TrEMBL record, chain A:
GO terms for molecular function: transmembrane transporter activity. Residues 21-209 form the ABC transmembrane type-1 domain. One of its GO terms (biological process) is amino acid transport. The chain crosses the membrane at residues 20-45, 66-84, 139-170, 190-212. SUPFAM superfamilies: MetI-like. CDD domains: TM_PBP2 (cd06261). This is Polar amino acid transport system permease protein. It comes from Pseudomonas duriflava. Coiled coil: none annotated. Belongs to the binding-protein-dependent transport system permease family. HisMQ subfamily. InterPro entries: AA_ABC_transptr_permease_3TM, ArtM/GltK/GlnP/TcyL/YhdX-like, MetI-like, MetI-like_sf.
TrEMBL record, chain B:
GO terms for biological process: amino acid transport. The chain crosses the membrane at residues 20-42, 54-78, 84-104, 138-163, 183-204. It comes from Pseudomonas duriflava. This is Polar amino acid transport system permease protein. SUPFAM superfamilies: MetI-like. Residues 16-204 form the ABC transmembrane type-1 domain.
C-alpha cells in the first residue's frame, strides 16, 4: 500500500510552527546584532595588531571556526556549569550564536578593513579628521560596505545552524517541529513544512539584509 | 562504573574514526555529484540549468538538520530500512554536492570567455572544451576553496549525532552523561574536531596565498 500523505495535522499546528519561527528569528537577530558588534571589535584589534588582544582574538577565531556549532553549544550549556557559570537554555543559545558569528565576522570584517587603502587614511589626516571620525567614515563604513554580501551569507548560515538549538530544548522552529511530529506521527510531512519555512526565512533574511546594505551601509554620502 | 581519562579518550577516538569516515564518504561522493551538478548548472539546456539551481538553492537555504530528518523519515516512507549511518551519509553527500557545485561554478565562470571561443573555433564539442580547456584551468583556482569547504563538511557531520549516528559528538554526549564530566568531555570533543579541521583551514589559507602570489 502506498503511503498517504496528510498535511492536515501539521497545518492544524500552524500557530506553534509560526511561534517557533518567530523565536528562531529573534535568536538570529540577537546573534546578528551582538555577533557583528563583536566582529567589528575583533576585526579592528586584528587588523591594527593591538597587542596583546590580537593574539587572543586570533586564537578565538581559529577555535570557533574549526569546531562545530553544536559542540560549542553543548560546551556552553553542559560544560560551563561545571565552572559555576550556570545559564538557562536561551542565554546559552544566544551566547553560542553571538560567539560563533563573532568569530566569522571578525575574519570577514578584517578583510574589509585591510582592503582600505593607506592613502585614504592619509587623506583623512590631511583633512584634519579626528581619529574617531576617520574610523567611522573612512575605515568602518567602506569596510562594511565591501564585505556586506559575505556578512549577509554568514548571518543566513547562522540562522540555519540555529536549528540544533532545539537540542538544548530552546523552543525555536525545530523544537516546535519535533514536538508536533511526536504528537501526530507525521514526521515527514512536519519536517517538510518546517524545511520550507526555513527556506522562506532564509530568502527573507537575505532580501532584508540586501535592502539594509543598499539603504544604510553602501549609501554614498 | 568508573571511567579513567584514558577510557574517555579511547571512546572518543573511536567516535572520531566514524566522524572521519563519514566526512570522507560525504566529501568524495558529494564531489562526484557536485561535478555532475556543475555540468547541469552550466548546461545550454535551460530546464537542466533551472533544476540544478533549485537543487542548490534548496540545500543551501535549509538547515542540514532538516535535510537529515527528511532523509531519515522520507526513506523509511518508501519502505526502505534506513540506518542512521546511511541517512547521514546520503544527506551529507547531497549537502556537500550543492555547496561544491556552487564553488566550482564560480571557478569555471572565472575562466575568460576567450578560452571558450578559442576552443569552440577549434571545433571542440562542449564536453571536450570542458575536459581539455576549461576544467584544467578552473581546477587550479578551485583547490583552495574546495579544501576550505572540507572543514564545513567535517563540522557538518556533528549534526548527524541528532539522528543517532554514533560519531564524535554523540559519543561525547554519552560519555558526558556517564561520567558527569561535561566540561572535560566536551572540551576533548571540541579538541578532536579542531585537530581534524585546523590543518585543513591552514592548508586552504596557504594554497590561497600561493595562488594569489603566482597570479600577481
Amino acid at each position: 500500500m502506498a503511503y498517504q500523505f496528510d498535511f492536515q495535522p501539521v497545518f492544524a499546528q500552524g500557530d506553534r510552527l509560526l511561534q517557533g519561527a518567530l523565536f528562531t528569528l529573534e535568536l538570529t537577530a540577537l546573534g546578528m546584532l551582538f555577533g557583528i558588534g563583536l566582529g567589528i571589535v575583533g576585526a579592528v584589534v586584528r587588523a591594527w595588531r593591538i597587542k596583546p588582544f590580537d593574539m587572543l582574538f586570533g586564537v578565538y577565531v581559529e577555535l570557533i571556526r574549526n569546531t562545530p556549532f553544536i559542540v560549542q553549544l553543548f560546551f556552553i550549556f553542559f560544560g560551563l556549569p561545571a565552572l559555576g557559570l550556570r545559564m538557562n537554555e536561551w542565554q546559552a543559545g544566544a551566547l553560542a550564536m553571538v560567539i560563533n558569528l563573532g568569530a566569522y565576522s571578525t575574519e570577514i570584517i578584517r578583510a574589509g578593513i585591510e582592503a582600505v587603502p593607506r592613502s585614504q587614511l592619509e587623506a583623512a589626516a590631511a583633512l584634519a579628521m579626528s581619529r574617531m571620525e576617520t574610523f567611522r567614515h573612512v575605515v568602518l563604513r567602506p569596510a562594511l560596505a565591501s564585505v556586506w554580501p559575505a556578512l549577509s551569507s554568514q548571518v543566513v548560515i547562522v540562522m540555519l545552524g540555529s536549528a540544533v538549538c532545539s537540542q538544548i530544548s530552546i523552543e525555536e522552529l525545530t523544537f516546535a517541529a519535533n514536538f508536533i511530529q511526536s504528537r501526530n506521527f507525521r514526521a515527514f510531512e512536519t519536517y517538510l513544512v518546517t524545511t520550507l519555512l526555513y527556506l522562506v526565512m532564509a530568502i527573507l533574511i537575505r532580501q532584508l539584509l540586501a535592502w539594509i546594505g543598499q539603504r544604510f551601509v553602501m549609501r554614498r554620502r | 562504573m568508573d571511567f579513567t581519562l584514558w577510557d574517555i579518550v579511547r571512546n572518543l577516538l573511536t567516535g572520531l574514526q566514524w566522524t572521519l569516515l563519514l566526512s570522507l564518504v560525504a566529501f568524495i561522493c558529494g564531489g562526484m555529484a557536485g561535478l555532475a551538478l556543475v555540468f547541469a548548472r552550466l548546461s545550454p539546456i535551460q530546464p537542466l540549468r533551472i533544476a540544478a539551481r533549485l537543487y542548490i538553492e534548496l540545500f543551501q537555504g535549509t538547515p542540514l538538520l532538516m535535510q537529515l530528518f527528511l532523509m531519515f523519515f522520507g526513506l523509511s516512507l518508501l519502505g526502505l530500512e534506513v540506518s542512521a549511518w546511511f541517512a547521514a551519509a546520503l544527506a551529507l553527500t547531497l549537502f556537500t554536492s550543492a555547496f561544491l557545485a556552487e564553488i566550482w561554478r564560480g571557478c569555471v565562470e572565472a575562466i575568460p570567455q576567450g578560452q571558450w571561443e578559442a576552443s569552440s573555433s577549434l571545433a571542440m564539442t562542449r564536453f571536450e572544451q570542458m575536459r581539455h580547456v576549461i576544467l584544467p584551468q578552473a581546477l587550479r583556482i578551485a583547490v583552495a576553496p574546495t579544501v576550505g569547504f572540507s572543514v564545513q563538511v567535517v563540522k557538518g557531520t556533528a549534526v548527524t549525532s541528532i539522528i543517532g549516528f554514533t560519531e564524535l559528538t554523540k559519543t561525547g554526549g554519552m560519555l558526558a552523561n556517564a561520567t558527569f564530566k561535561p566540561f572535560l568531555v566536551y572540551g576533548l570533543v571540541a579538541l578532536g574536531y579542531f585537530v581534524l579541521c585546523y590543518p585543513l583551514s591552514f592548508a586552504a589559507r596557504r594554497l590561497e596565498r600561493r595562488l594569489n602570489a603566482t597570479a600577481a
